[in-house]
Protein: SOCS box domain-containing protein
Amino acid sequence: MAKEYDYLLKVLLVGDSDVGKQEILSGLDDGSTESPFCSGSGTAHKTTTILLDGKRVKLQIWDTSGQGRFCTIIRSYSRGAQGIILVYDITNKWSFDGLNRWLKEVEEHAPGVPKVLVGNRLHLAFKRQVAAKQAELYASRNKMACFEISPLCDFNIRESFCELARMALHRNGMERIWRSNKVLSLQELCCRSICRRTNVYTIDSLPLPPSVKSYLRSYALTSSQCLNTVLNNSASIAKNLKCKTATSYHLKHNVRNGCVIS
Structure:
């Protein structure tokens, strides 16, 4: 029986109590019959499947209680996590100020795991206590992506999980597997078209700015299509050199033996 997904990722929701983590979970499509469920240890779990560049990524999302007594739960679950969602409430400055505590806890037990900062309850922006710029600066300092979301309006929830999944797969070296399925940029399409009609040796003769030529040369050397051209040219040069060497050898050999080549 074929699997219903291509990749499986474990994601942890972290943040103070009452920031709306359960609201976020409820806004995601349910991916299994038994979830969401709550366990006696203070965690809630839900699975959902997202489509990322043509690949099905199944997310196993664990929500830990924001109360301090559940820090031991975070310690145990963060060790196996491949992505972290740090949640705060944009209408609650205290929940944003508490992120340092959660970030320290996560970094201690899951160093290097990709993280996304999420500001919840954007639909209550008229009560905002945390400026979007402040959150963006905090995320930038800690090398995180940043989103403001609204479960009520179904805004940016799936986008934030897609970005986290992309970061996690990239960290584990899986992104290259489906890179060919991505939509090419206009710049790459132009480079591919040019390189298909020329080779790395004739790029300098093109009527283009030097910066564009430099980029084309780099693209040509790394492009498989142009690399084949380079290899074919190299093979042709090697063949000619081999023929010249052989001719030179026979000429010297015949002269030494007193033979005359007509």
